[in-house]
Design goal:
Chain lengths: 253, 356
């Protein structure tokens, strides 16, 4: 009988339950990253640099070397590691709070620097681990524990569009926003994550994938309702798309 | 072959680390530490290394941590407010048992302070600005020559104990230009095998991970206990200081860095007049050289601590002396001349000799 390990290989670990809440999109994104590493055959030379928050647990479920970086600083840590180990594959895995609130500075400069590292930002539009506070990516009207009447853009500002901010940067080789709200989207997200790793292996430059993910706990919704909310409301603000793909040019050559 | 160069002492720091095998320097411009990065940006590529200019001290210190994860010894250099921004990552590196070499070209504070040289960061250097029970090994050279001589020792300490090592040199000394004789280049980092802990991919070891936030209570306890034992070992084995004319002294002057260097002239001048003054110059600020004070002779009737601040190391001297002898303080910081002069030190020591 085929086991999960036979199917997923060594990268994804099955020896303990995950700490992600039931229905959390992190489980899907973590699996997609594991599948990419496994299929590319890069597990033994891959380093995971995770942020603080729910995403910080992702490395517990991956059989690759890992560092839990300081809140927001994962891209800087990844750059330091890449300088020391240029032939290795290093990726960051951060949530929207870690990446776009406390860590906006590091992610933007990492993108602009153009060093071939891969950054995954899982955006569930809320601070999950700390109990559902407003994140820079909380959508207008979204109720959180710190926007109890819904995010009012006149008071709280607008949701931050991180890939759009990176779009003009020449150092960025792959840039995409994906989601895991349905099967079709998950397949597209898998492709973008793979491309983001391929970019690094080919040394083309910085690669970034934002993945819109439902947080049933933070949204105080059932799992199906959280997915429906993300698919309708969150995606109305954060439009999935591939902004930039230097791999295509590279393949043409 | 030895080589004597005429350099600013910031450049002496840069030259020392290059000669001793450090190949990566992460930095962000700040006065008066900037000369280090100007020097390494030019000189490191010639030996296959690089200076990496990051976007802030936050990024600098975290990139340094990422570099150290690979089992390699990197360096950084900063001053005052830059060091303040690095504290979080320094605590992170101590917790993760990651080695590095750092220079704090100390300037005056608090807050953003001023660019004038000082020793205002003694507390920050020796107590740490990050949270938790961690320690940083702190070396306080008093001139370019001592920077060059302490660099191999600093590298050895960083890699032996897998801990950040911080050189603290006041901004005045950093900007002095003087001759320094360097030993023949030797890669001291190559003396250490880091393969049993470095995060270099699972090809040659089972998965390793550096946890800083989500350890269990039991893991956290074990980590802290392991570090407590390590710090106790360092405190026991690694105290360094210089002392002269202590055996029959009536007054002992205690100072580090530039004031420590001035103590030689001060004591010589007193001794020429037949006055019994000696000095102790701490070279390690953490661990503080308590052993230097354990057996001070009964002739000592008072101690004068001189610093370029409002009194920081004086606390450690009082703890080391433990009430056996009165400890007095003389300090100055800021202004056009940000330090005590030899005349100030002579005046205060004379008062103590006379029992005032």
């Amino acid at each position: 009988m085929q086991t999960l390990a036979d199917y997923y290989g060594k990268t994804l670990k099955f020896d303990k339950l995950t700490s992600y809440c039931p229905g959390c999109g992190h489980g899907i994104v973590t699996r997609l990253v594991a599948e990419t590493i496994e299929s590319m055959g890069i597990r033994e030379k891959t380093m995971s640099v995770v942020g603080i928050g729910c995403g910080g647990f992702s490395h517990h479920y991956l059989e690759v070397d890992a560092i839990e970086a300081i809140h927001g600083r994962a891209p800087a840590t990844a750059i330091g590691y890449k300088i020391a180990m240029p032939d290795h594959v290093v990726f960051t895995y951060q949530g929207d709070g870690d990446t776009s609130a406390i860590g906006l500075h590091e992610i933007m400069h990492a993108a602009n620097r153009g060093m071939p590292i891969t950054c995954i930002m899982v955006n569930n539009s809320v601070f999950g681990m700390t109990g559902g506070q407003m994140s820079p990516t909380t959508i207008p009207g979204q109720v959180t524990t710190t926007t109890t009447k819904g995010r009012d853009v006149h008071i709280h500002g607008y949701p931050l569009l991180v890939p759009e901010m990176m779009r003009a940067m020449k150092g960025v080789a792959y840039l995409a926003r994906e989601t895991v709200v349905d099967v079709k989207s998950i397949n597209r997200a898998a492709k973008s994550i793979r491309n983001a790793f391929e970019c690094q292996v080919k040394g083309l430059g910085f690669a970034f994938v934002e993945v819109i993910s439902p947080c049933p706990t933070g949204l105080h919704l059932s799992v199906p309702d959280a997915y429906a909310y993300a698919a309708k409301e969150t995606l109305s603000y954060f439009k999935p798309q591939v902004f930039k793909n230097e791999l295509e040019k590279s393949d043409e050559v | 072959m030895k080589e004597t160069l005429f350099l600013k002492n910031t450049e002496a720091f840069a030259e020392s680390m290059i000669r001793c095998g450090i190949r990566c320097h992460f930095a962000y411009p700040i006065t008066p530490a900037t000369d280090v990065m100007k020097y390494t940006s030019r000189m490191l590529p010639e030996v296959g290394g690089r200076m990496v200019q990051m976007e802030s001290e936050l990024a600098v210190s975290n990139a340094l941590a990422g570099y150290a994860c690979a089992g390699k010894l990197g360096a950084t250099s900063s001053s005052g407010p830059g060091m303040t921004l690095m504290q979080e990552a320094i605590g992170f590196m101590a917790a993760g048992e990651l080695p590095c070499i750092m220079l704090d070209a100390m300037r005056v504070g608090p807050g953003d302070g001023d660019i004038i040289g000082a020793q205002s960061t003694y507390f920050q250097a020796t107590r740490g600005g990050g949270h938790g029970d961690y320690r940083v090994i702190v070396l306080a050279p008093s001139c370019g020559q001592e920077i060059a001589e302490l660099m191999p020792q600093g590298i050895k300490l960083a890699l032996t104990y897998r801990n950040p090592v911080l050189f603290v040199v006041d901004g005045v000394t950093c900007q002095m230009t003087e001759t320094t004789t360097f030993d023949e280049p030797y890669d001291y980092t190559a003396d250490f095998d880091t393969s049993d802990w470095a995060y270099t991919g699972t090809a040659d070891h089972p998965k390793r991970f550096l946890l800083t936030g989500s350890y269990t209570h039991e893991q956290g306890y074990e980590m802290n206990e392991r570090m407590r034992r390590k710090y106790a070992e360092i405190a026991e084995k690694e105290q360094m200081w210089e002392q002269e004319e202590v055996d029959d002294a009536e007054v002992l002057v205690v100072a580090f860095g530039i004031h420590g260097r001035m103590c030689k002239d001060l004591v010589e001048s007193f001794r020429a007049q037949g006055k019994r003054v000696g000095f102790i110059r701490p070279i390690t600020l953490w661990p503080f050289p308590n052993k230097a004070f354990e057996n001070i002779p009964a002739s000592v009737k008072s101690i004068l601590v001189v610093e370029m601040n409002h009194g920081q190391m004086v606390d450690d001297v009082r703890l080391a002396v433990n009430g056996r002898v009165p400890v007095h303080f003389l300090g100055k910081t800021g202004g056009d001349i940000p330090m005590c002069t030899l005349a100030d030190m002579t005046r205060e020591a004379s008062k103590l000799l006379e029992g005032e």
